Every structure is written in C-alpha cells, then in structure tokens.
Prior knowledge:
Shape: elongated
Radius of gyration: 23 Å
Number of helices: 13
Distance between the termini: 35 Å
Number of strands: 13
Amino acid sequence: MIVWVNGTFGAGKTSTCRELVQLLPGSTLYDPEQVGQALRVLLPRERLDRVTDFQDLPSWRRLVPQVAVAMLAEVPGPLVVPMTLLRQEYRDEIFGELAARGLSVHHFVLDAEETILRERIVRSEEVPGDPEASERCRRRRLRHLPVYQQARGWLHRDAQVVDTARLTPRQVAEVLALRIKEGSARCPIVPSLDPSADTVAAAVLFFDERDRVLLVDPVYKPGWEFPGGVVELGEPPTGAAVREIEEELGLRLDPGRLRLLVVDWEPRNGPRRGGMRLVYDGGRLTAAQRQRLRLPVDELRAWRFVSLAEAERLLAPGRHRRLAAALAARAQDGPEYLEAGRPAAQGLGGRR
Length: 352
C-alpha cells in the first residue's frame, strides 16, 4: 500500500509524514525527491539542462513506482510518500503504474489558505546555518504557490483534502491514519492483473453528427483513449467490446451491428504492454444516447467528441495513427491490418 501525501510547500507534508510512520505499524518513509537527486547525478548535464523540474524526466516517473515496488519487497509497508505532484498526467502515469503492480494508493492533499502557506514559508529555515541559501529556497517555494492554486481543482476532486491551518502535524497524521483505516482516501484505480503479459484489447468508435469521434479520459493513465478494454481469458473480442462499452458508457450494443475497422499489433513500449488491438465501428450516437452516457468514476473522468486533428493532442502517436487508419477503413470497405499503427509492410520498419 502507498500513502501519497500531496500538497504545496508550507502545507506540512514532511512533518506530517514523519508523524504518520509512527502511527502506521510497519510503515516506511519514501521520498521520491531522492530519486530525482540520484538522476541529477547520473544523467548528463545536457539532458538535465532541458528540464526545469526532475518530475519532467520520464525516467523519474518510471523509477518512482519501480523503487516503491522494490522497497516493499524489503519492508512490510505501507510506504508513506511526502511528494508534491501537481500535473494530472504525471499523477495518472505514476499511480497507474503502481496499480498495475497491484499496489493500492491512498491519496491525500494537505491544504491551507494561501496567506497561511506564505507565512509558513517565510518563517521557515530551509537550509540551517546558510541564510542566503534559505532565502533562495524560500523565493523558489513562494513562486511555486500559483502553480498549486491552478492545480487545486483536479487535486480536490482526486484526493482526500485535509485543512492543516489549525492542526499540528501530529493531529494531521491522526486524521490521515483514521481515513486510511476507513479506506475513504483510496484512489479508484483499476489494477492490471498481469503487468508483464501482452494483451488483446477491443475498442469501439462512436461518432456524432459531425463525424467527430468519441474519446474518454481514464483515471489510471495519462492521455485519452478509445472506449473499450482488455479481452478476458476465453472471451471473444466482440463480446469484450460489448461488455466494456456497457461498463464504461452504459450503452448496450448489438454485437451483430459492430463492424471491424482495424486490427493493429501494438509493440511493447517500456513498461507499457503491447499486443493485438481491435477497433470496431459503433455508429453514430444520437443526442438522446449522449445524454444517457454514464461513466464509472473508478475508471473514467470525462468523454468528448473530437476531430482527427484534435485527437492528435490527446492520443499517443501510435493510437492516433490507429485512429486515422480506422477512419480511412470506415470510409472504405475495411478492415485493415496494421503493425504499430501502420500498414503491415511499414509497421516494423517505420518510426513508431
């Protein structure tokens, strides 16, 4: 289990987490900032100069869950993690990988009014014995406050918020421990049963009157996706498509009316699994059908219709190529077989 304590500078994350490990038997403090510090030593200077924050390094976002898994092989757990995480796509990437490793995440945000946060930062001695370094650190942390204010919207929807304005770190830790016991802060992320094996997945494309395609925003990984999901053991892909659409959107489909557009072999990408991807045409959704769409809060945040050009900003490159091929097949006879989002003759040799 992971207890992720989020919030901006001055919220009291570190002091609260030190108290929390005293309240949770077997718990260990895990600070991902140390992973960032290691990367500052290991990576070439020219690579580090291209980012302003180590969280922007894909290697940091991959290592944080991997180190957590390695630590939990050494200690009983849970891991208590004091770490500011303000970009939603980074949260999706890290928490999704933790879920894929079978780890539940309890997500908290420690909050206070901005005036209180500013006062705490100004009064703090960030680098004991070095007034100049402390002042530089305080200025940097004060500049960070507007970023937190911008992120509060999604953070307060995603996590359990605890106001620390009138509480000591020990009292905040006691609140967190109680909510962990209740399970009220557990993130609704669907874990993968086997993060190592390739999969077969089935997706269904739906369209509006302007022929824009429906995409959904999953809570467990960054970026947008097609509605659909993994084919279960012994399940036919068309049956999986029907099941997933009912689970994700609340729509009941007639499998006989689904038209296969694309079969795409997706290569493994780092920790992300590959496998066969089938894309079906689900037809146009009427205004009445769109009003009846119901998303499971533990899987999807939102849905929207987009053009192919708009989808390029939301989808991974391989998925965008798959969508382009599916739209072309929809306009013709279809279906088409792809590898890495390209016709098979180009799939392995082309860039992905």
